[in-house]
Structure formats: structure tokens, C-alpha cells
């Protein structure tokens, strides 16, 4: 009997719950915004970084740059269907114009050149210059990586002027020094970077150099320089040796809306990536393709082979218009030796001297140009994204002597 009552009570409870459920469904019928919102969400997915990114407009970035917060988004939550899920394209930065960058970075340059600048001026304007003093002047110049030949040339010229004019006041000496240094830096060299379309194809820039000199960073910074000059740029991550290099490059490009062609396979054939990048550049009608390479090769033969192959494979589709050698200014004469090996493997058309902010040996500009016979076209003066400047001989010399 007890069991019978129990069954009756359970039955009644089920009946009451069922009725409540039916009533609730009838009241809520036809108003299902929240579930629709949830279904809409996948269609509003953020722009990702897949290969089809290559077709995107310049306003959309490839890279890993994080999506910024939505401006003006009401904090109290969604009011319309789908609004909450719309994720804006990552903000594209407007890089600083290349013009006048060296002026902005002048203080860093002056620091790096204090050995030649302040040291030398102090020596020269100390009045009577005897043989010992001139030797000291020459030593100061050599210590600044100017190179023995250039240092001797400069000292000879200054000695002659002091002898002829007989004056050694600071302003006069400063003028002489400025003039002689400028001559050594060879202001007439063509320092333009090939970055305009050649007929129906983009300009192709290959960036080479020993690992750690700042190649990847330089490619990223150069992309910014060119974007600031309204060039349509595409990057090729042919440094397949270091897995993070392609990510690093993609992030640099993404910040300024520049796409990166890369391989997802670590250790992929760099020549194949370079080929794909140039192909994409031609198809997308960009102005310039910049290709980053690895420099981690242990011997000259290996280096020649790899760079030679990259060059040959690119040339199946396009000439290479610019080969930039990235050189770390802090490595001084050692770096120069390495640079010569690269110059034998490929025809270098320009030098990028990085980390000039971290050395007191600015004279390397002169010696690298003299020894490789190609101009320094860009200088790196810090780790900031816009700390790469077109090399301007006048501004460089002014920073030394003033
Ligand atoms: N202070 C200073 N640091 C720089 C400059 N250029 C590059 N660097 C730094 O140098 C380091 C190496 O730069 P990367 O671009 O990774 O060098 P990499 O040659 O591509 O190296 P691998 O990919 O290993 O071949 C980074 O920490 C950069 O921020 C510069 O002009 N000044």
C-alpha cells in the first residue's frame, strides 16, 4: 500500500514538471537571439594567417600581431545579432618616413662615433702637434675600425693642412676633418635600394649575411621603410634553418600589412621558398619582394652552394635586382672577413651595417666600403622597428664631427 502512494506522488510530480516545461516553451517561442548569435559566431571568425592570406588587401595583416580592442564597443554587451563576434582586422601601423631618420638617430650615431669625433678633435686642437701626437691621431682612427689605409690617408691630409695653414683652432680642424671624412665615405656612391617594379615584374631583393647579424630584423625594418614610401611589399622567409625566423618575419610583415611567403616545414628547401615568394610577388603584382636567407653555413663551399642554388632558382623567374649583405658593426674586422666570403658567393650590391648604436667604431663604414667596393646603403641604430635608416654620408660625418 505504501508503495502505491509512492508511485502516485512520483507520477504527480512528473505531471506538474511536464506541464511547467510545456508552458515555458510556449512563452519563449520564436525568440531565440542567443542561440542564433552562437551559430553566427563561426561565420565571423577572425582573419587568420593561412595561405589564402596572400590574396588579401593591403589593409589586412598576415602576421601574428594581436587584434586590438574594438573601439567604441559598448561595455554592456551585445544589442544586435553578431555584433559581439565581429573581430576587426589587426591594426596596420604607419611606419615613420625614411627621410630624416638618420637625423632622429643622430645622437646614437654620435655616441658610436665618439672615438673619431670627440677624441680626435680633442687631440687635434690641443695646440702643438708633434710626431707623437700625430701617431696618437692615427691610432685613434685605426681603433675606430677606419682601416689602416684610410687612417693614414686622413692623417697625411690633416698634417699637410696643419703645415700649410699653420692653424689648429678647433673650428678650422673640424672643417678639415669634416671634408676629409666625407671624401673617405664616398658620398657619390649610388645608395638607392632597388624597390620599383621592373617592367611587368617586382624588384627582387635578396638579403644575406652571417646568422645573428640582424638579417631577419633588417628585412622586417626594410619592409617598413618601403611601406613608408608607398611600396607594395612581399616577404619571403627563406631562412628555413631557424624555425622561429619565419614567424618573426611574418610578425614584422603583419604589423605593416605585408604578406609573408613561408614554408611550414622546418628545414624546407630555402630555394623553393624563395621561388614561391617571387612567384607570388609576380602574381600579386607587388612592387618589391624581399627574401630573408639563413647564414648558418659552416664552410665556404656550403655557403656558395646554398646561395648559388637560391640565386639560380629565383632567376628562373626573375633577375635579382639587389643583394644586401647584413653586417654587424660590432664584429669589426672579423665581420669584414666573413663578409668577403659572402661577397665571393654572390654579387653584393649594398651593405646594411647593423648595431652601429652598440659600437664606438663607426669607422667600419669606410673600411667595409673600401674592402668590398660596394656602398653602405642602410644602417641599423637600434632595436626599434624604425631604427633602420638610409645611410646619408653628410649626416653621418656631421654626427662625427659636431
Ligand atoms: N642594438 C641593435 N640591435 C639590433 C640591430 N639590428 C638587429 N639587432 C638585434 O640583433 C639580434 C639578432 O637579429 P636577427 O634579425 O634575429 O638576426 P639574424 O641575422 O636574422 O639571425 P639568424 O636568423 O639566426 O640568422 C636581435 O636581437 C635584433 O634585435 C641594430 O641595429 N641595433
TrEMBL record:
Binding site for GTP: 209-216, 292-296, 354-357
Tagged with keyword Glycosyltransferase: no
Subcellular location: Cell membrane; Cytoplasm
Annotated EC: 3.6.5.4
GO cellular component: cytoplasm; plasma membrane
Keyword annotations: Cell cycle, Cell division, Cell membrane, Cytoplasm, GTP-binding, Hydrolase, Membrane, Nucleotide-binding, Receptor, Transmembrane, Transmembrane helix
InterPro entries per UniProt: AAA+_ATPase, P-loop_NTPase, Signal_recog_particl_SRP54_hlx, SR_rcpt_FtsY, SRP/SRP_N, SRP54_GTPase_dom, SRP54_N_sf
UniProt enzyme class: hydrolase
Chain intervals for the UniProt region annotation (Disordered): 32-80
The reaction(s) this protein catalyses: GTP + H2O = GDP + phosphate + H(+)
Gene3D superfamilies reported for this sequence: P-loop containing nucleotide triphosphate hydrolases, Signal recognition particle SRP54, nucleotide-binding domain
GO molecular function: GTP binding; GTPase activity; signal recognition particle binding
Its membrane topology: Peripheral membrane protein
The keyword Nucleotide-binding is assigned to this record: yes
SMART domains assigned to the protein according to its UniProt record, in alphabetical order: AAA (SM00382), SRP54 (SM00962), SRP54_N (SM00963)
Parts of the chain that traverse the membrane: 6-26
Low complexity bias: start-end ranges: 57-80
GO biological process terms on file: cell division; SRP-dependent cotranslational protein targeting to membrane
The SRP54-type proteins GTP-binding domain, residue ranges: 375-388
Function recorded in the entry: Involved in targeting and insertion of nascent membrane proteins into the cytoplasmic membrane. Acts as a receptor for the complex formed by the signal recognition particle (SRP) and the ribosome-nascent chain (RNC).
Family listed: Belongs to the GTP-binding SRP family. FtsY subfamily.
Subunit architecture: Part of the signal recognition particle protein translocation system, which is composed of SRP and FtsY.
Protein name as annotated: Signal recognition particle receptor FtsY
Amino acid at each position: 500500500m505504501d508503495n502505491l502512494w509512492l508511485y502516485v506522488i512520483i507520477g504527480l510530480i512528473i505531471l506538474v514538471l511536464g506541464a511547467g516545461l510545456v508552458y515555458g516553451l510556449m512563452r519563449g517561442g520564436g525568440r531565440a537571439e542567443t542561440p542564433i548569435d552562437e551559430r553566427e559566431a563561426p561565420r565571423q571568425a577572425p582573419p587568420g594567417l593561412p595561405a589564402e592570406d596572400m590574396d588579401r588587401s593591403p589593409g589586412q595583416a598576415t602576421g601574428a600581431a594581436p587584434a586590438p580592442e574594438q573601439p567604441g564597443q559598448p561595455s554592456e554587451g551585445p544589442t544586435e545579432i553578431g555584433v559581439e563576434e565581429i573581430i576587426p582586422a589587426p591594426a596596420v601601423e604607419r611606419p615613420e618616413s625614411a627621410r630624416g631618420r638618420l637625423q632622429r638617430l643622430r645622437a646614437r650615431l654620435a655616441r658610436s662615433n665618439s672615438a673619431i669625433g670627440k677624441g680626435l678633435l680633442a687631440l687635434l686642437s690641443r695646440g702643438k702637434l708633434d710626431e707623437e701626437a700625430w701617431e696618437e691621431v692615427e691610432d685613434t682612427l685605426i681603433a675606430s675600425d677606419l682601416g689602416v689605409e684610410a687612417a693614414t690617408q686622413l692623417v697625411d691630409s690633416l698634417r699637410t693642412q696643419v703645415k700649410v695653414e699653420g692653424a689648429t683652432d678647433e673650428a678650422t680642424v673640424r672643417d678639415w676633418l669634416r671634408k676629409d671624412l666625407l671624401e673617405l665615405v664616398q658620398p657619390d656612391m649610388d645608395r638607392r635600394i632597388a624597390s620599383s617594379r621592373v617592367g611587368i615584374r617586382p624588384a627582387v631583393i635578396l638579403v644575406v649575411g652571417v646568422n645573428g647579424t640582424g638579417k631577419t630584423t633588417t628585412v622586417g625594418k626594410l619592409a617598413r621603410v618601403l611601406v613608408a614610401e608607398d611600396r607594395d611589399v612581399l616577404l619571403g622567409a627563406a631562412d628555413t634553418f631557424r624555425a622561429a625566423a619565419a614567424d618573426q618575419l611574418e610578425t614584422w610583415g603583419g604589423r605593416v600589412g605585408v604578406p609573408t611567403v613561408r614554408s611550414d616545414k622546418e628545414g624546407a628547401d630555402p630555394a623553393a621558398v624563395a621561388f614561391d615568394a617571387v612567384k607570388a610577388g609576380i602574381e600579386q603584382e607587388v612592387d618589391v619582394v624581399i627574401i630573408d636567407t639563413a647564414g648558418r653555413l659552416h664552410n665556404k663551399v656550403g655557403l656558395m652552394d646554398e646561395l648559388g642554388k637560391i640565386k639560380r632558382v629565383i632567376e628562373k623567374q626573375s633577375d635579382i635586382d639587389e643583394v644586401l649583405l647584413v653586417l654587424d658593426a660590432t664584429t669589426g674586422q672579423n665581420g669584414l672577413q666573413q663578409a668577403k666570403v659572402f661577397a665571393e658567393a654572390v654579387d653584393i650590391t649594398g651593405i646594411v651595417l647593423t648595431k652601429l648604436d652598440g659600437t664606438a667604431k663607426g669607422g667600419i663604414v669606410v673600411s667595409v666600403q673600401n674592402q668590398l667596393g660596394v656602398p653602405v646603403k642602410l644602417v641599423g641604430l637600434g632595436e626599434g622597428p624604425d631604427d633602420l635608416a638610409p645611410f646619408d654620408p653628410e649626416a653621418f660625418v656631421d654626427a662625427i664631427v659636431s
